């Protein structure tokens, strides 16, 4: 796992890897309906892939307004700081673009993870695709 790296992905060229990861995590494991997983935001987002060597193991995206989302890591690589590397890459890209406020909707069980990365809960709990979520915000200094 010492060959982990995150890079900006190309929605067209890296589509198969992005789809494989998100379909495995969200559609297969979490039963998110495909029509909710894929949206019109994808072609306009900055996508990130986490790789172990040259094998894609995680994905995330950054929307033009600073929303980070679709953070997903394949089961065998969870707990190895892959998600942290993805979110950190998205934060850095947001800041590079002048987006000093990053936002996300976190699954409730993941709020401590995002809090460690500087996000704070700013909403009550709500259901998204049948899964409890909260909105979170991070303000860059």
TrEMBL record:
Gene3D superfamilies on file: 3.40.630.30
UniProtKB keywords: Acyltransferase, Transferase
Example of a GO MF term: acyltransferase activity, transferring groups other than amino-acyl groups
Alphabetical list of Pfam families matching this protein: Acetyltransf_10
This protein's record includes keyword Transferase: yes
Domain N-acetyltransferase: 4-141
Family matches, as InterPro entries: Acyl_CoA_acyltransferase, Bact_Acetyltransf, GNAT_dom
Record-linked PANTHER family: ACETYLTRANSFERASE, AMINOALKYLPHOSPHONATE N-ACETYLTRANSFERASE-RELATED-RELATED
Protein name as it appears in the record: GNAT family N-acetyltransferase
Organism: Pseudomonas cavernae
């Amino acid at each position: 796992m010492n060959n982990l790296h995150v890079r900006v992905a190309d929605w067209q060229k890296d589509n198969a890897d992005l789809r494989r990861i998100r379909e495995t995590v969200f559609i297969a494991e979490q039963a998110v309906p495909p029509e909710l997983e894929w949206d019109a935001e994808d072609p306009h987002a900055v996508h990130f892939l986490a790789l172990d060597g040259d094998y894609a193991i995680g994905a995330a995206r950054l929307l033009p307004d600073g929303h980070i989302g679709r953070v997903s890591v394949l089961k065998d690589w969870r707990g190895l700081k892959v998600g942290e590397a993805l979110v950190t890459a998205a934060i850095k890209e947001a800041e590079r673009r002048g987006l000093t406020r990053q936002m996300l909707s976190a699954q409730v069980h993941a709020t401590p993870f995002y809090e460690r990365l500087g996000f704070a809960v700013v909403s009550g709990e709500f259901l998204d695709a049948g899964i409890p979520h909260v909105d979170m915000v991070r303000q860059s200094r």
